[in-house]
Design goal:
Layout (H helix, E strand, L loop, with lengths): L5 H6 L18 H7 L1 H17 L3 H5 L3 H28 L8 H37 L3 H10 L3 H9 L9 H8 L3 H9 L4 H8 L19 H22 L5 H13 L5 H17 E2 L13 H13 L7 H10 L10 H12 L3 E5 L1 H8 L9 H11 L4 E2 L5 H9 L3 E8 L2 E11 L6 E6 L3 E6 H7 L7 E5 L7 H15 L5
Parallel strand pairs: 2-3
Antiparallel strand pairs: 1-5, 2-8, 4-5, 4-8, 5-6, 6-7
Helix pairs in contact: 3-6, 5-6, 5-12, 5-13, 5-22, 6-12, 6-14, 6-22, 13-14, 15-16, 15-17, 17-19
Length: 500
């Protein structure tokens, strides 16, 4: 068992000592994730057998010619790169599994299914790459082959050269942070390891002091074939171990388990995919997300809506009176109680990183608040902040209920200003229930909580006695949706590779 990789030890039930190190995500260790994921690991074993039958000719194809070998290594690199990109996306998405909306659920299903398949394929081709490159090295003259092998450094040697002779002999996270602040080489390695203190500590355990200065053979590839051989040998000596011991390969398992727990389904890939499919269909008909539902304590209805947006998009942030009051001070001017919508849009983007759109029925709104510049507060502050956000503003003059529902399906939260002057009041559309004949939107009132407003009434309710205006908030994570889809498409292309 000593020569098995981390994945192999996991598959065969032999956990190396480093796996018990705490890698806190949702308060769990790697051991706990492995225990909870036993069905997923078993399904991975079964899928690996199927993968070997699906693409049985990779070895004979790859050793048949130099061109085929180069093609194999290119495929191996692209597969690793795409898998790691999807793995990083999973780690990012894991920060907010509480707020699930139809678009996100659909993306998660495609992400989970495709990444699992790519991981299975990648594990298989990684398992056979050693046999393939050994055959390739045999085709070189003995002197060139020996020079190539001696030129490639091992991972411990790499660490020793990067860290220095003193090395790092601790896994204490506070000591490691102290060293990172003083050593730029360590910071580079830390970044490459996924910026996890615990993963970095595992990597440092491979440090071995050099008895003498490392003197490796200099090998300059003469053609693309030798270049591919050198790269695959470097990969085998360094890259694979770096990834395995860094814990990066656990990202997808953790994502599957945390998502299964969130959806209250069995921790099993087929069950998770089915649950995601069913959840997406249900959410397209009825979407009732859990929001903090924090109610206002002062004339802060707009600020309170934004505070609830922050707590929804960033579930690790507690929505409290201090958050309400802090936002309120930034979106008002002394002597006026108005929560300025342009200020809410600006603060949301600049202070919380939430993509935001000011919206209005400009036909009736602009003559009142935009066409004539003024030095009178609070309109002066409104106009100043509007200049900061107008490039991303929307005209809601002809908005339809279908468009509102479409925005909600993408996780957008729509805060609008209703009522009669001077007592205007912010509310926020957060969901809908279109099941049956009675179609309704779920509306959060910062004074009373969530209520239902009929589809036929919502557009009128969004208006006040002057016009229509408000703020549309967008999930921060949506900025990586497109790049995630691109990586999924790339993964599907790689999975079609089947040399004959």
């Amino acid at each position: 068992m000593e020569n098995l990789s981390l994945e192999e030890r996991v598959l065969y039930g032999c956990l190396p000592p480093s796996i018990v190190d705490v890698n806190m995500l949702n308060g769990k260790t790697d051991v706990q994730y492995l225990e909870e994921g036993n069905k997923i690991i078993q399904y991975f074993k079964d899928s690996l057998k199927d993968e070997k039958e699906r693409v049985p000719n990779i070895i004979p194809y790859s050793i048949k010619s130099q061109e085929n070998f180069i093609e194999f290594f290119s495929h191996l690199k692209e597969s690793w790169g795409t898998y790691l990109d999807l793995s990083v996306k999973m780690a990012s998405f894991s920060e907010n599994l509480s707020f699930l909306f139809p678009e996100k659920i659909g993306l998660f299903r495609d992400l989970a299914e495709t990444t699992f398949k790519l991981n299975t394929h990648l594990y298989y081709i990684t398992d056979i790459e050693k046999e393939i490159y050994e055959k390739g090295i045999e085709n070189l003259p003995e002197e060139r082959a020996l020079s190539l092998i001696q030129s490639v450094k091992s991972f411990p040697v790499y660490l020793s050269e990067e860290i220095g002779e003193g090395g790092v002999s601790t896994k204490n996270p506070y000591e490691i942070r102290e060293m990172l602040s003083k050593n730029p080489n360590l910071r580079k390695l830390f970044s490459l390891s996924g910026s996890s203190i615990n993963s970095f500590g595992k990597l440092l355990s491979h440090f071995a002091p050099l008895n003498r200065k490392s003197e490796r053979e200099i090998f300059t590839p003469e053609d693309d074939y030798e270049k591919a051989l050198k790269e695959i040998l470097s990969y085998d000596h360094f890259f694979e171990l770096f990834l395995r011991e860094g814990g990066i390969l656990m990202n997808d398992l953790k994502f599957y388990i945390d998502l299964s727990n969130r959806l209250s389904c069995s921790r099993d890939i087929p069950e998770l995919l089915k649950k995601l499919e069913d959840s997406k269909e249900d959410a397209q008909i009825s979407f009732n997300p859990k929001i903090p539902s924090y109610t206002q304590t002062s004339l802060s209805c707009g600020a309170t809506c934004l505070a609830n947006v922050v707590g929804t998009y960033y579930p690790h942030i507690n929505v409290t009176r201090s958050l309400e009051n802090g936002i309120h001070k930034l979106v008002t001017v002394p002597g006026f109680f108005n929560n300025l919508p342009s200020s809410l849009a600006y603060i949301s983007k600049e202070k919380f990183g939430i993509p935001t759109h000011f919206f209005a029925d400009y036909k009736s709104f602009a003559p009142l608040f935009l066409d004539k510049k003024t030095d009178q507060e609070p309109v002066k502050k409104f106009q100043e902040d509007y200049e900061r956000v107008k490039s991303s503003s929307f005209d809601y003059g002809d908005i339809t209920t279908e468009e509102i529902k479409s925005k909600l399906e993408k996780g957008h939260l729509i805060s609008f200003v209703t009522g009669q002057s001077p007592m205007l009041h912010y509310k926020m559309i957060v969901g809908y229930n279109f099941r049956g004949d009675k179609k309704q939107f779920r509306v959060f009132d910062p004074q009373y909580g969530v209520t239902n407003i009929g589809e036929s009434e919502i557009l009128l309710n969004m208006r006040n006695d002057k016009s229509l205006w408000g703020v549309e908030y967008v999930p921060p994570e949506s900025v990586i949706f497109d790049s995630t889809r691109e990586s999924i498409i790339k993964a599907k292309e790689l999975l079609r590779w089947n040399p004959q």
